[in-house]
Amino acid sequence: MNTNMKIRNIIAGAVLLLGGLVGCSEDFLDRPPLAAIVDANFYKTDDQILAASAPLYNLVWFAYNDKASHGIGDARGGILTSGSYQLENVRFNTTGETPENGASWRAFYNVVAQSNSLINNINQFVGPNVTDRIKNHGIAEGRFMRGLAYSYLVQNWGPVPIITNNTALLQDTTIARNTEESVWQFIIKDFRYAAENLPENAVLNGRLTKWSAEGLLAKMYLTKAGVGGTRSQSDLDSAAYFAKRVIDNSGAELMPEYEDLFKTQNNGNIETLAALQWVYNAAQAGQWGAQNSVQAFLAYGSEITGFGDGWGGDIGASKWMLDMYDDLVFDKRRKASFMFPGDHYPYITQVPAGGSAQQLRVPANGIDGSRNFNTRAWVKKYVVGRPEDNDGKVVQQGTEINTYILRLADVYLTYAEAILDKNPAEALKYVNLVRQRAGVNSLTSVTWQDVFEERIKEFAMEGQAWYEFTKLEYYDPAKAYSILSTQDRGTFRIYADQIPDPTLWEIEIPADDTTPRFFPVNESNFKIPIPSSELARAPNLRKPAVPYDFSAGN
Predict the structure, then answer these.
(1) What pTM did the predictor assign?
(2) Most CB within 10 Å of its CB: which of 158, 263, 402, 530?
């Protein structure tokens, strides 16, 4: 059995074994639901340790990946526009009742809870036949995922409770939020442990490695650098150090073609440093949550999914997003991220109502005189098509395309930003490597704005844009608020010069368009409010934050 099949089987088997382990909890402070694998009879072999950690690669992240990742990470970040779907996030009116808010909070604390269970159960129940290498590996996987969840929590909600033992919390009514500085220190400690205990080469395809952890550690240091209000040079140096280690030692390479990054057959490609691993038919096997459901909400119609989903016709790139591209034709990232009328995707099958199967040529749904247009630049990224396009491995609300946690292009841009002031020539080199792959001209000099815009284009619809702003807001809030407040998030038309086979497109705002386009952002609405249901269940979350007591251990 090859290693790729082995990890798929372990993940699928672990999902079946876990059953209700990550069932919906009424309160993020509750102890995680218990299942057979958390008792003393389970953690007795290396394979059992790997089976126990496998659900950290999919099931526990489902509620965030499903809709909240693009609702928080992309809509709040200015990538999307919409007439209805995700509108509160698009218009920067995320409230305590916004569905993606509650889903994100609960998902992240579910990751924390299950990571804690894994760490504590390995320490308590591990058998003598488990090697130290795999014991430490399992704990390191738990700490990697816990640190990642806390990085999202602190950037979205500010001070949050640090929890390492959910069982003890059943008797603890004094749980309080911890300061942002404490949370970031905790995150760094988790990723450092992971970097020290994960192997250089994955134990199974898709599993985390030392380079996964060091790459994320670089990103964490880059964001943490601004937490005190000015950027810490020491943290920037640490970000640069770990990023360069990954660049020099991981063996990862940029995929030659950007669009190939988002094809299911390229899961686990040479650019991947860490990714969530999904099982396409898990829902049909009775294990909802181990499949990647995101195509259902992003694809513009059922004719390209093959099922009754494809509910993304009302969302698409914002005008601010499209204005970022150097060229709408030649920047390969545009077509790989967003569909324009007339775009041709030969690897996706389209079956129009009453029609026959054909290669996807994105339809134009309006005509103005002789000009064809659409009112949305529909989402392409993570839309993989029908079963026949993916070896049969697509079901309604289920594909198996991996969700990137970290890829090499991210490490390049992290390194560039970290060394920008000290070594702009070196920073320029890595920014241009990303641009060259995208098919656009190299820059002759580089600024913070260049790196920022490159990140927006490179990672659009990967749930990252919002976290560019949380990073910036730590040390330059006025700039973060200004950029967000001046993003054009209104509607427009995309005109193709000809259908089929357009050679250029024009983006225009109709003269009679009255939709709101700009939404003010300031200190009062930048951070996301803690979900109302959580405040009701845990009133101590209203109390002032306190430093975390690190003497209690992790």
Answers:
(1) 0.93
(2) 402
